[in-house]
Design a protein that fits this description.
single chain; mainly alpha; Serine Threonine Protein Phosphatase 5, Tetratricopeptide repeat; 2 domains; 0% strand; elongated
């Protein structure tokens, strides 16, 4: 979906602007025209919501909440055919879990939760008031104020964090489109009990469109900054592969000024500094990277830093953590074996290296380490036979 991101964002903008125009400036007296326009908006928002949903799912890393939330969403969607209120509440719960199916940092998570609660309060109050036969009054104004404040506080908290710029921003687009979907739904289903739907719907549209454009602008700013530094990132990795670490660091530092939370920048800068032996600064960037993304490659790089700087036990903790997530990850298997070799626990090292070689026959690191392990274990004859199979990899 990434290659179609610009089209998806364009569809989102069209849906939001159309909803604002019809509900704030449309001719409500011309009922036929108004309903026709509402049907168009309903269709447009559904399409925008579907594509944004797919776009959100392919960004970053999903956690265990993804599958339960999809199941709950499917149940909610099915129940809406029999009871729009119960089905809608279940779908709202599913949306909450979907927004949290990404591994995001504390302030951002709190921001998402607060904004969600604010919008959910605005969405649930009208049908609840209708069910309890309440007339629109002071309580509604209090709820409208509280919901608006929660949304604003959540947005401010998230913007200040700026750690998962694109993932969180698209998550907020998904959030706003989901609630923007309510107003045309109410019109098409002729739900106007106790006269409060119109006020709540207009508040939701106002807040949703405002929040949408805040995070839409956030994505644009990020993408513009990304385009400016993409050359530095690419050159940095080219120099890193050539062993020109000092020059690579210069490129990554320039990129870091523009994109301080970009995973590629943090990883490249951390690796280049590690290769130069600047372990303290390298650790700063790699630890920040792991906080932002729980990716196994990044975590293994942090483990490699600890290994290189002599903190073997700390490196082993990282590798073991990675292998719990993926027992067949080659780099973690090979590098954990090296740790056991350093500690003289040769049998454990041998088991891991044999597994690594079985996982990927083409990679050479584990094979070379296996030869040195056999030598360290005093198995010279077996080591000599194995060396002949390596085709000059070791002298």
């Amino acid at each position: 979906m990434e290659r179609y991101a610009e089209y998806i964002l364009g569809l989102d903008v069209a849906a939001v602007i159309s909803a604002v125009l019809i509900f704030f400036f449309g001719n409500l007296q011309a009922e036929t025209v108004f309903l026709l326009a509402t049907q168009m908006i309903f269709t447009l928002v559904i399409l925008a919501l579907a594509f944004t949903f797919l776009y959100y799912l392919q960004l970053g890393k999903n956690n265990w909440l993804l599958m339960p939330s999809l199941v709950i969403l499917a149940i909610g969607a099915a129940i809406t055919f029999f009871s729009w209120f119960i089905g809608g509440v279940i779908s709202l719960i599913a949306l909450f879990f979907l927004l949290l199916c990404k591994d995001i940092a504390g302030d951002e998570k709190r921001g998402v939760i607060l904004s969600y609660v604010g919008f959910a309060l605005l969405a649930v109050m009208p049908p609840l008031g209708a069910f309890l036969s309440l007339q629109f009054g002071v309580l509604d104004y209090m709820v409208l104020s509280l919901g608006t404040i929660l949304v604003i506080v959540g947005v401010v908290l998230t913007i200040r964090s700026r750690k998962h710029v694109e993932t969180v921003s698209v998550g907020f687009l998904l959030l706003t489109l989901s609630f923007l979907f309510l107003a045309p739904s109410h019109e098409l289903l002729s739900i106007h009990a106790n006269g409060s739907y119109g006020v709540y719907d207009l508040t939701i549209i106002s807040m949703a469109s405002l929040v949408f454009f805040v995070f839409f602008a956030n994505i644009l700013v990020y993408r513009l900054a990304e385009r400016k530094v993409i050359e530095d990132i690419e050159n940095g990795y080219k120099l890193l592969r050539k062993g020109k670490y000092k020059e690579a660091v210069e490129h990554f530092r320039r990129a870091y000024k523009a994109l301080p939370d970009d995973e590629r920048v943090l990883n490249g800068l951390g690796l280049a500094l590690m290769k130069m032996g600047n372990y303290k600064e390298s650790e700063e960037y790699l630890r920040k990277l792991v906080r932002i993304s729980n990716d196994k490659v990044y975590k293994t790089n942090l483990g490699n830093l600890y290994f290189r700087s002599g903190r073997i036990d700390k490196a082993m903790e990282i590798y073991q953590e990675v292998l719990k997530e993926d027992p067949h990850f080659y780099n973690a298997l090979n590098n954990l074996a090296r740790c056991y070799m350093e500690k003289g626990e040769y049998e454990k090292a041998r088991e891991l290296l044999e597994k690594a070689i079985e996982v990927d026959q083409d990679k050479k690191a584990a094979k070379v380490n296996y030869y040195f392990l056999l030598t360290a274990m005093g198995m010279d004859e077996e080591a000599s036979k194995y060396k002949s199979q390596l085709g000059g990899l070791v002298e």
